[in-house]
Amino acid sequence: MRALKSIGAETIAFVLATVIFLVPFSFMLLTAVKDQVQAADLDFAWPTSWPIVQNFVAVIEARDYVLLRAFVNSTILTVASVALIVIFAAMAAFVLQRRVGKIGSLANFLVLSGLIIPPAIVPTIWLLQAIGLFKSLPGLILVEVAYGLSYAVLLFRAFIAAIPRELDEAAQIDGCSGLRLFFRVIFPLLRPVTITVILTTSVAVFNDFVNPLYFTPGDENATVQITLYNFQSQYSTQWNLLFMDIVLITIPPLLMFVFFNRKIVAGMTAGAIKG
């Protein structure tokens, strides 16, 4: 009886999840392949014409190929931000896990504060202006790193807690210094949680809309999410092109989750159990 209830609950959850995902996604695809007049109805009606190529070309060519530049900017932003987050978060988590004390407790409080306290937009803009990085890609990379560190540190620390301290002591007896101990002994053991951090953080940075909007206004350093404004104006919206743009910028993170979903779950589960 319990097995039947469990199967029934899993089936209901699967159906609900499928509906919640497929209904908006199918609406997005249908609108993206319609012409401008029919797309303005915003309904599930079957397209009377299929201007798929025309819509695709119009999105790519909009505002002097800004979408292509945006993909390059988003790729640079994502790769640089995730690389820095992984390195800094892993090192910080190792130190916080191995050194327990008042300073460590304060650092843990600050890490948790990074998840709880909302970002301060105006002071961050002032700081970026003071160091000359406002409206620049390096400045946006620093912002993404600062906002993403807390989450990554917590994941790394939960995983590091399962690594025995005897391994550190043995490496130190063999002559390993602090950095060499971390990069040669500890960091290779963090591969499962590192993959999880890379995938989840990459999707978060690539899909970020608010930070690029505030900290890199303009077309020069536009990211893919900002290009959604290309097809909206004060009086009208080109819904077919807007949804075609959404489809194009949804494909990379969607493919990452489809192909690496098991690795994401495995890394989070391992960290949760070992922590």
Can you give a write-up of this model?
- The chain has 275 residues and is mainly α.
- Helices cover 75% and strands 0% of the residues.
- The model has no long low-confidence stretch (mean pLDDT 86).
- One of its GO terms (biological process) is transmembrane transport.
- Pfam families: BPD_transp_1.
Count of DSSP H/I helices: 11
What profile does the largest beta sheet have? Answer: none
Helix content bin: over 70%
CATH architecture: Orthogonal Bundle
- Output the CATH topology: MetI-like fold
* Helix-strand sequence: HHHHHHHHHHH
Q: Separation of termini?
A: 34 Å
CATH superfamily: MetI-like
Whole-number mean pLDDT = 86
Strand proportion, as a percent range, falls in under 5%
Q: In total, how many beta strands? A: 0
General form: globular
* Structural class by sheet pairing and helices: mainly alpha
At the first level of CATH, what is the class?
Answer: Mainly Alpha
- In terms of per-residue confidence, which ranges show pLDDT below 50 for 5 or more consecutive residues? none
Q: C-alpha Rg, in Å?
A: 23 Å
Please give the domain count.
1
Membrane topology: Multi-pass membrane protein
Organism: Nonomuraea cypriaca
Family: Belongs to the binding-protein-dependent transport system permease family.
Pfam families: BPD_transp_1
Brief descriptors of the model:
275 residues, mainly alpha, MetI-like fold, 11 helices, globular
